[in-house]
Every structure is written in C-alpha cells, then in structure tokens.
Amino acid sequence: MQREFEVIFKSYYAPVKSFLRKLVKSEADAEDIAQDVFSQLWVKPEVWQGNAQIDRYIYRMAKYQALNFLRDMARNCDNGLVDADISQLEKISDSLSAVDPIIHEEANLLLRMALDKMPSKRREIFSMSRLEGMSHKEIASKSGLSIRTVESHIYAALASLKAIFPH
Known about the structure:
- There is one protein chain.
- α1 packs antiparallel against α2 and α2 crosses α4 (about 55-75).
- By secondary structure, this protein is mostly helical.
- It contains 9 helices and no strands.
- The chain folds into 2 domains: about 1-75, Rna Polymerase Sigma Factor, Chain: A; about 85-160, Winged helix-like DNA-binding domain superfamily/Winged helix DNA-binding domain (Arc Repressor Mutant, subunit A), CATH 1.10.10.
- Helix content is about 80%, strand content about 0%.
- The longest helix has 23 residues, at about 1-25.
C-alpha cells in the first residue's frame, strides 16, 4: 500500500505543484496546497489504490484546493475587489477559464446573477464605470447624479462582488 502511494506521489507531486503555482502565483502557497492535496489523498486509500485515472482525481482535487485558497485569501484581504478595476476582474476570469471552462462559466453566471440582484441604477452605474470605462464625472453628467453618489454606487457594487470573487 505505501509503495503504491510513493509511486503516485513521486509521479505527480512536482507537476501538481507547478500547476498550482500557475493558479496561486506563489511557490510557497503552491507547495502548501500540494502537500495538503497529497496528505488528504493518503488517508483515502480507497480512492487511489488501483485507480488508473488517479491523475484526473489529483488535478481536480488540486484545482478545488487552489480555488478555496484564493477564495479564503479574498475574504481575508482588507481591500479585496473594492479597489479593483475591470482589468483585475478580467485577469481572474482569464485565469479561471484557463483552468476549467466550467468554472469560467460559473464565474460569469455568478457575476450576471450578482449584477441582476443590484438595484437598476447601481447596475447601470457599475456597467458604465467598469465595463464601458467611463469616468465618475462622465457618469454623473450622463445620469444627472452627483459624483459622490456615483462613487457610492460603484463602491457598493464592488463591495457586493467582493464576497463572490477571489482576489
């Protein structure tokens, strides 16, 4: 039993760690997550013993561990997406789409659902700011609101998205 796990570990640890490094952008965090993946795998011999497709299981496990790590980081981050611009959101979206098209679609669905739940004026202002690239002054002029009100709507929209998307 131990010998079979050693073969799995030696075969997959380095590639999994490399895969995780691309997702979390940190060598140390990738190593921690990879160790967690293999530690969790070790206690489930029914999953890895004699499993010819263990590589798929390991990579899927690693992907979800990385996403959980990123989500936790976002929750613990003081500024999160409140200070983010649309290019940061696009980078997150691009990195998720490279990982798994299903997760990319889920992220887009979550974004659409979050935008749909916002009051119409907030959604409109957020879209003008982040999707159309308009300045606060331009939005205020176009919508007949004060710049301060526009800023308030954008801040509230980003704060609600912060809970949904990793940093």
